Amino acid sequence: MKSLKANGEKSSYFNVTALNLFFIFLFLLFGPFAKPSDCLADNGAGLSLHECIETALEKNWSFIQSKLRYKESTYKASAAQKELFPKIGTDYSLLWRRDESEITIFGRKSVISPHETYNWKVYVTQPIFYGGRLWNSYKAAKLDVDISNLMMIQQANELVRHVKNLYFDLLAALKLQDEAEAAHNRLKAHLADAEAFYKAGLRTKNDFLQSKVELAKGKENLIKARHNVDLAKARLNLVMQRPLSDEIIPSDKLKYSESNYDLDQLYSLALEQRPEIQAGLLAIKKAERKKNVAKAKFWPQLNLTGAYERIGDTPLMRENPFGDTEQVTLLVKASWELWNWGQTNDQTRAAGTELALAKTALNDVKEKILFEVREAFLRLKEAEEALKVAESALEHAEENYKLYNERYRQQLATSTDVIDAQTLLTQAKSRYFISVAQYAKAKANLQYATGDEIKELKFQEKRKKVDQVVVK
């Protein structure tokens, strides 16, 4: 692992500009890819872990949904901003009266409004003062954009971990299949020896039949191992949204390299990098804005409206015998809701409670992340120790099998001894392969817990292989 930054070297608050730049980079990096089937070269080079991650980030439905949620939030922020701008509108109306309106002056009647009055208006309305409601609504929507961006990054973090785990499971399944084939071949070789000894009268028929039964078990185990490989490939294809039956030939291999992590530094790294913490900080700011939106109803609202109006007694309004045909007006309107039974006060208190919830939620997220880091760290140490034990056991099992196989050929051991030694060898190899895969998965889980997957995506995009692994 690269050297970790000390506490306080950088602010934990995620810079919004950096978020936007990262989002743009993420889309450029994981934008147009070749089709998933094109990832398999004809020369049998295989599919690397990095290529699997790229394909998943392009095709996975969950990650596509997170990108769409980000896009949705940008539209909502844009709409909230436009509430601050002037609105232009028009309306056209017809007012019909059963009776004409008349007025009598000095005994003489005059019509002042006809049966039909047509009216057409074009107007511009500009909000002047809303107690900060429009501005705070816009700023809250902007914070939603940054929060959804962070959630998209978190989704990428989870997806990368999931792909790594599936890839390591496939590598382990392939190794277990190889071992099942090797065990089957060892049992076939032993059956040939047992048959030769039986025909020569040096072994009992029971010894020969026992070897045949064990070979059948070995064949059954091989079939299971092959099916497990098919399922592991299908799971990986599923997360990459490829046809389940598509072939996958991994080009990366499993390899163990001793880890050397400091738990306190891992805590600091997680608190700095995990997007959920940054999202929690922004959620607090958003709740503050929403509280200001609720409080804005305590204030009056002020609008300015300018209008051009035509009035007439015909649909085209060319003439108005009863007044002016055209009018230009400027209206300043103030409105203030003075009493609503405490509704605004309740809404303000609710927004204050939401702010308190956001603060407690952030504390909860921090504690859970620190627990995740500690658990991942301990699981990695556990997997490392288990791997060392499995490696030592494998060496003993290999030596034990060679010893009993040779003693059998010298008539100093029975088929039971050889079969038991063979079973122990298969179990030791299986445990070793599984332990290596578990170690690789534990390392990937620790990278997830500290947010290192994000750093890989951001700063190491030119890498062609991610976290390569190889087994003996």
Question: Notable features of this structure?
Answer:
472 residues, Outer membrane efflux proteins (OEP), four-stranded antiparallel sheet, two-stranded antiparallel ribbon, 62% helix, elongated, disordered N terminus, disordered C terminus
CATH topology of the largest domain: Outer membrane efflux proteins (OEP)
Q: State the secondary-structure class.
A: alpha+beta
The percentage of residues in β strands lies in 5-15%
DSSP helix fraction: 55-70%
Write the H/E string, N to C. HHHEEEEHHHHEEHHH
The coarse silhouette is elongated
Radius of gyration: 37 Å
Provide the low-confidence segments as ranges.
Answer: 1-44, 458-472
Q: Examine the secondary-structure arrangement and name the CATH architecture of the largest domain.
A: Up-down Bundle
Give the count of helical stretches. 10
How are the strands ordered across the major sheet?
A: 1-4-5-6
> How many E strands?
6
Quaternary structure of the protein: single chain
The CATH class of the largest domain is Mainly Alpha
CATH-wise, what's the superfamily of the largest domain?
A: Outer membrane efflux proteins (OEP)
Separation of the first and last Cα atoms? 23 Å
Q: Average pLDDT across residues?
A: 83
Reported for the largest beta sheet, the result is:
4 strands, antiparallel
Q: Domains counted in the coordinates: how many?
A: 2
